Amino acid sequence: VCPYYLSRSLKQEADVIFMPYNYLLDPKSRKALSIDLNGAVVIFDEAHNVEKTCEESTSFDLTPYDVASAINAVDRLLVEQSKEISHRDSVNVDFHGETSASGFKLGLSTIAKIKQILLDLEAAIDAYDPSDQGITKPGIFIYEVFEKANLTFSSKTAVYEALEHIIGYLAQQPGIFLNTSGLQKLSDIIQ
Q1: CA distances (Å), 16 to each of 36, 38, 156, 161, in order?
Q2: Cβ atoms 162, 114 nearer than 8 A
Q3: Signal peptide location in the record (predicted)?
Q4: What are the tens digits of pLDDT across the range 23-47?
Q5: 165, 157 Cβ separation under 8 angstroms
Q6: HEC sequence for 69-128
Q7: Which tens digits make up the pLDDT trace of 81-138?
């Protein structure tokens, strides 16, 4: 019997469950473990660490390197897809769909829009002069930065879906490793 799956099934009927509190405080972990806290009494051991854990679960770091690596990944994809379209046009292949021969389903204009959002985000971040310790701002600040990159509440779903599609496609490509951590980080932030 696998202890993990046994514990998971037994927790449905348990009166007392012992677990690290970060599982309770992290929304992704709670969802993954199907933890329902409604009506529950929660006792924290090592409660002096709870504040830091809460801060970490609701904050993030977005570095210029993250954005630069995301731009690099999207740029490489844009070049690759452009070459594929040029090659397809040169051999007179009749192509009427949005899916390329490589199986990628986003058009060049969508990839270019994502790249422009990333470039605008990079410019917005570069406009601030952080100290060696970085910048700490109120939560509303990130919405102002994202708005400068045309990443708004109305566009976030489309951008998120495009990023996820790009990440998935790049992760399946054989050959040279391409760092998609910046794309993944931005995708997680948007989500």
Answers
A1: 13, 14, 40, 40
A2: yes
A3: none
A4: 666 666 655 566 666 777 777 777 7
A5: no
A6: HHHHHHHHHHHHHHHHHHHHHHCCCCCCCCCCCCCCCCCHHHHHHHHHHHHHHHHHHHCC
A7: 888 888 777 665 554 444 555 567 788 999 999 999 999 999 998 888 766 677 778 8
